[in-house]
Amino acid sequence: MIHIRDAAPEDVPAILSLIRALAEFEKQPDAVVATEADLLRDGWGPQKRFSCRLAELDGAVVGFALWFYNYSTWEGRAGLYLEDLYVSPEARGRGLGERMIVDLAQIAVREGLRRLDLSVLDWNPARDFYHRLGLQHRSDWQLYRITGEALAALAAKAE
Predict the structure, then answer these.
(1) Domains of the chain
(2) pLDDT top residue among 10 and 120
(3) Which residues are known to be catalytic?
(4) How many angstroms separate the CA atoms of 105 and 101, rounded?
(5) What is the average pLDDT value for the chain, to the nearest integer?
(6) 99 CB contacts (<8 Å, ≥6 apart)?
(7) pLDDT score of 159
(8) Distance (Å, rounded) from C-alpha 96 to C-alpha 98?
(9) What count of other Cβ atoms lies within 10 Å of the Cβ of residue 93?
(10) Where are the beta strands (DSSP E) in the chain?
(11) CB atoms near residue 27 (< 10 Å)
(12) Distance of alpha carbon 35 from its chain centroid, rounded?
């Protein structure tokens, strides 16, 4: 039986395990530096920075969707940004990924959010899955990011 539910603080070890499995899938097994303490602080602390939904199959946690709110200045409305969606290999092909995306769409509609955004690696076969669900690739937008020392150096330019 499939069940989608809000994650709770006691789920953090399972969430971190799934995050590590996702990093392995994305060919970056050593990239995860997040700790259980980080997830507890940012998911259930005084400044909540993300929400997480879990997929259970026959009572076992086998997938997660971690998301947060973004904001459209043009629409004057918040949206939902899906940071990560992952289903364990042994649970794939049973509709869990679709159920989680539908669940997030329901949250967005219920909360009056105008959009659901996500990013997908160009080689990820999940792109076809997202297309089938009606999500559209935005080739007119390019993702930019700055991290680590480069971010610190940029911030230091104001000094």
Answers:
(1) 2-156 (3.40.630.30)
(2) 10
(3) 130
(4) 6
(5) 94
(6) 2, 4, 55
(7) 64
(8) 5
(9) 9
(10) 2-6, 51-57, 60-72, 77-87, 116-118
(11) 9
(12) 16
